[in-house]
Write a structure and sequence with these properties.
The chain is α+β, with helices and mostly antiparallel strands. The chain has helices at residues 84-90, 95-103; strands at residues 25-37, 40-56, 59-63, 68-72, 76-78. It starts with 24 loop residues before the first strand and ends with a helix.
Length: 104
């Protein structure tokens, strides 16, 4: 599924954020914050998927099962790409980083 996003040097290759088109299936995260008293806040993140219905510059409208979300171009990933959680967990492709370390 994700082979074209796996990097030889370790990490994940970012998708082409400029290539989105209306009708594309995408993944995205929705973060909710809830006050739980004494100044504490509970944060939850949930992965969703949906279909792009409109693109206006970097603002992309995505229709999920129940709701329609207005998202920023760089908050979504193609359906066949790793989701945002994987990018946070595994990190970006290391080839560039390794090159910088060699020339530093």
């Amino acid at each position: 599924m994700m082979s074209k996003y796996l990097c030889n040097c370790g990490g994940l290759i970012l998708p082409n954020f400029e290539a989105y088109q209306v009708g594309d299936e995408v993944n995205f995260m929705i973060q909710k914050r809830k006050s739980i008293g004494n100044g504490a806040i509970a944060v939850s993140q949930k992965a969703h998927s949906g279909k792009i219905t409109e693109i206006t510059g970097d603002d992309i409208t995505v229709k999920a099962q129940v709701r329609t979300y207005k998202l920023y171009r760089f908050e979504i990933t193609p359906k066949d790409a790793p989701g945002p959680i994987e990018y946070f967990r595994i990190g970006r492709c290391r080839c560039e980083l390794d090159q910088k370390e060699l020339t530093a």
